[in-house]
Design a protein that fits this description.
There is one protein chain. By secondary structure, the protein is α/β, with parallel strands linked by helices. It is 37% helix and 20% strand. It contains 14 helices and 16 strands. The strands form five sheets. It has a five-stranded antiparallel sheet. The chain has a four-stranded mixed sheet with strand order 6-10-11-9. Helix 3 packs antiparallel against helix 4. The longest helix is centred in the first third of the chain and has 17 residues. The protein starts with a helix and ends with a helix.
Length: 438
């Protein structure tokens, strides 16, 4: 949705198959590497309004982006005025509080993009309509910037399966029960697409992006990595969590129970086969599905002699984390020690001090420490992991002289989690990739 040219490509894809009836759009992204995403501009705008600083230049940039798109699609010039008025009306509502105001402004990118696409389809004599998430019952929890769908919404959303026109729905946001705009986490248009797919029992969820397929590893780290033809929900979930940015990590939740396949394809190269995400493999494969890495983790390390004999230790530990509103990702453990892997964004000096105090006082541990210099790598493959993958990964990291802080395999052998220093992340991914594919 970055430009008029991209919207024309999207339109060609939509019209090439009459079965495509529900279209979920993102905000306009970058047109070239140095460009700014509209969502980033909207966040900047919201911060300037809230900070009571001059925001006119930023507002003009946003309006100009949409003006260029509208002009390139030969739509009415009055449409630009409508967009400008929409933004100005939202800006007037800054008194609703910073988190809700931020969501209201951030959601503008997807909302206006959906209106533009619907209008362009109409200009081509296609029966199309913009669909407001409020009118179809897209109700979310009242958690600005990190909302979740209320399960009761599915019944309301299911009426979309009877739509006769091409319905264009803005992704990324919905409304709380009070009728206020709330957004998913960044990249949440993928989640909207998954929710709508589940609600209407779609045959397939097509996710068009800017890559030909999902790759075994990040092309920015590995030169020309192998493409993935098929991958399972479980594998993709593990990889998305650890840095596969092609699909938001929460996307799979709404559709996994329905068994709806997802295909990842390239808007700029739609004839490429892409990557299919399936509930299960049709045939067992020994191929590694992917290697993903992500910085920004922390490890809470605890040791206590005879920890394994102390009934209730794990429950007490998790209760402390819950009390401090800290979610955890992994808990690899030994006989007398345990590590809890968390997102380091949940920490600050005050929380760390309080957390360590409670862990020492209430659990009576011999040692407690927090290591924030942690990157996590996930090596994923439902069947490949059973074929000496643990040994291969260990050997690769040893040969590359990378110190491993944590090494843990999942209970069902789907993935292997490696914790290392953040400075070693790219080096480690290269070492692991080479041991499997060189």
């Amino acid at each position: 949705m970055a430009s008029a040219e991209q919207i024309k490509k999207i339109t060609a894809i939509i019209l090439s198959d009459p079965a495509r009836r529900l279209i979920i759009v993102s905000a306009p992204g970058k047109r070239y590497p140095e460009d700014e995403k509209v969502t980033d501009l909207l966040i900047q705008l919201a911060n300037q309004v809230l900070g009571m600083t001059d925001y006119q230049l930023c507002l003009d940039k946003i309006i100009t982006r949409f003006k260029e798109i509208i002009h390139g699609l030969s739509l009415s010039a009055n449409f630009v005025l409508d967009i400008e008025n929409d933004l100005k009306e939202r800006i007037k509502k800054s008194s609703i509080g910073a988190p809700k105001f931020m969501d209201l402004i951030k959601a503008t990118g997807e909302d206006l993009a959906a209106k533009v696409l619907a209008e362009y389809l109409k200009s081509l004599k296609q029966e199309s309509e913009y669909i407001n998430p409020w009118t179809i019952g897209m109700l979310l929890s009242d958690q600005p910037g990190n909302a979740r769908l209320l399960p009761t919404s599915y019944k309301a959303l299911s009426v979309l399966k009877d739509i006769k026109t091409i319905g264009v729905i803005p992704g990324f946001f919905g409304f709380n029960e009070a009728g206020e705009v709330v957004t998913f986490a960044r990249g949440g248009s993928d989640i909207t697409g998954s929710i709508i797919s589940a609600a209407v029992d779609a045959e397939i969820y097509e996710n068009y992006t800017d890559v030909d397929s999902v790759y075994v590893a990040d092309p920015k780290i590995i030169k020309k990595p192998l493409a993935i033809a098929e991958i399972t929900y479980r594998e993709m979930r593990e990889l998305s969590y650890a840095g596969f940015t092609v699909l938001h990590e929460e996307t799979l939740e709404p559709i996994h129970k329905k068994g709806i396949p997802i295909i990842i394809k390239n808007t700029n190269n739609p004839n490429m086969p892409g990557t299919m995400i399936l509930p299960e493999y049709k045939n067992e494969t020994k191929t590694l599905s992917g290697i993903a890495g992500q910085k920004g983790f922390a490890s809470i390390y605890l040791s206590k002699y005879l920890m394994n004999r102390e009934i209730g230790f794990g429950r007490k530990l998790l209760q402390i984390l819950e009390d401090e509103h800290i979610s955890f990702d992994h808990t690899p453990s030994g006989i007398d020690n345990i590590s809890v892997i968390i997102d380091s964004d949940q920490l600050n000096p005050s929380i760390e001090e309080k957390l360590l105090f409670r862990l020492k006082e209430e659990l009576k541990v011999d040692h407690a420490a927090i290591d924030k210099d942690l990157a996590v790598i996930m090596v994923v493959g439902e069947y490949a992991m059973k074929d000496y993958a643990f040994a291969k990964v260990s050997k690769a990291l040893e040969t590359a002289e990378i110190n491993v802080k944590i090494l843990s395999q999942s209970a069902f052998g789907v993935s292997l989690m490696v914790g290392i220093a953040t400075t070693d992340l790219n080096k480690a991914i290269k070492a692991i990739y080479n041991v499997f594919y060189s």
